[in-house]
């Protein structure tokens, strides 16, 4: 039963990582932009969710506020800074977004204060659920898992079954052609950035009842998020989901059971020390193994196949011709 509980903990962590990685991999896949400030949007979502929830007494309202605040900050960052970095070297993007991290941390201290905030789950999620007879599990963690599943289904529908999703896929590799067809690619980039920021804000809001909400909390999860993106395949939302679950489960199970396994062959003190080191490296070992087998990651990003990317543009041309009076246009 302990294994099942820890497995669910791993799935819950994986869903949190997916929410972070989905937005970040969309931004990189469409804009080819390295955004280290994504963790700051996660922090904004956590702080605003906690503040609104404590003031209003409604956790749902807090989550909405956190998502909207993160999306608004994302739009502001994209318009003021990122828009000028699209055609710059990745090193310039890294340096600029690192500066945004420092600015966001100091601004958070000025607005919310340096002390950590703590948020309890809402009353209706403060109970436990018997996943098996006499095996209780926190309802809030199940809620986080369910939220991740809903977001994954929503993104899949938007990207594969809607016109805006078709535009996103085509814009990933044929920006000039999309622009020539009359679509506002700059506004598309802003909308994608806002969506990614909202997902980061949602992840931060959901993490509030599980972690201490403090300045710099975004940097802690950002490293694992990049590991998820690399394993899943840069630009692939499906890869982000699968890799997030893999990383979450491997990280959780290694920390929970590796000490016990090592104690069967080593002294307790040595086993604990070695287990702590190995479990910290487990996700990076997983990443190394995946990259040896599949250097491009588990899944191809949108547009990595020339045949697929040409098909996306062909679909756009059909839409453009068939709906000239009321064509899909975001600007």
Describe this protein's structure:
It is a single chain. The chain is mostly helical and 331 residues long. The protein is built from 12 helices and 2 strands; from the N terminus they run H-H-H-H-E-E-H-H-H-H-H-H-H-H. It has helices at 2-31, 38-56, 59-80, 90-112, 139-161, 163-171, 175-180, 185-207, 217-232, 237-262, 268-293, 306-322, and strands at 128-132, 135-138. The protein has a two-stranded antiparallel sheet with strand order 1-2. A hairpin with a 2-residue loop joins strand 1 (128-132) and strand 2. The longest helix is centred in the N-terminal third of the chain and has 30 residues, at 2-31.
What's the helix and strand layout?
Layout: H1 2-31, H2 38-56, H3 59-80, H4 90-112, E1 128-132, E2 135-138, H5 139-161, H6 163-171, H7 175-180, H8 185-207, H9 217-232, H10 237-262, H11 268-293, H12 306-322
Antiparallel strand pairs: 1-2
Low-confidence runs: 303-317, 319-331
Structural class: mainly alpha
Helix count from the secondary structure assignment? 12
Radius of gyration: 21 Å
Report helical residue fraction: over 70%
Shape: globular
What's the rounded overall pLDDT mean? 84
N-C termini distance:
54 Å
Strand content: under 5%
Number of strands: 2
How can the largest sheet be summarized?
2 strands, antiparallel
Order of helices and strands: HHHHEEHHHHHHHH
Order of strands, main sheet, comes to: 1-2
């Amino acid at each position: 039963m302990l294994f099942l509980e820890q497995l669910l903990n791993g799935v819950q962590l994986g869903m949190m990582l997916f929410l972070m990685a989905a937005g970040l991999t969309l931004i990189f896949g469409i804009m080819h932009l390295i955004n280290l400030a994504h963790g700051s949007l996660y922090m904004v979502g956590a702080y605003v969710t906690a503040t609104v929830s404590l003031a209003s007494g409604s956790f749902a309202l807090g989550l909405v506020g956190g998502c909207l605040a993160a999306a608004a900050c994302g739009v502001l960052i994209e318009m003021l800074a990122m828009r000028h970095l699209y055609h710059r070297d990745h090193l310039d993007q890294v340096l600029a977004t690192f500066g945004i991290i420092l600015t966001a941390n100091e601004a958070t201290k000025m607005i919310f204060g340096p002390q950590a905030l703590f948020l309890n789950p809402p009353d209706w999620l403060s109970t436990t659920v018997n996943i098996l007879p006499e095996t209780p599990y926190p309802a809030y963690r199940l809620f986080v898992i369910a939220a991740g599943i809903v977001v994954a289904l929503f993104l899949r529908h938007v990207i594969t079954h809607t016109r805006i999703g078709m535009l996103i896929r085509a814009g990933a590799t044929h920006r000039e052609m999309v622009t020539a067809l009359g679509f506002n690619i700059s506004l598309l980039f802003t909308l994608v950035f806002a969506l990614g920021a909202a997902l980061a804000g949602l992840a931060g809001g959901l993490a509030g009842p599980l972690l201490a909400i403090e300045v710099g909390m975004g940097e802690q999860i950002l490293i694992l998020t990049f590991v998820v993106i690399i394993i899943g395949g840069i630009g692939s939302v499906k890869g982000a989901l699968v890799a997030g679950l893999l990383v979450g489960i491997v990280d959780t199970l290694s920390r929970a059971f590796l000490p016990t396994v090592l104690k069967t062959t080593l002294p307790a003190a040595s086993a604990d020390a070695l287990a702590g080191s190995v479990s910290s490296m487990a996700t990076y070992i997983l990443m190394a193994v995946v990259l040896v087998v599949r250097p491009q990651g588990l899944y191809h990003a949108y547009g990595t196949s020339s045949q697929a990317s040409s098909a996306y543009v062909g679909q756009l041309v059909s839409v453009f011709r068939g709906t000239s009076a009321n064509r899909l246009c975001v600007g």
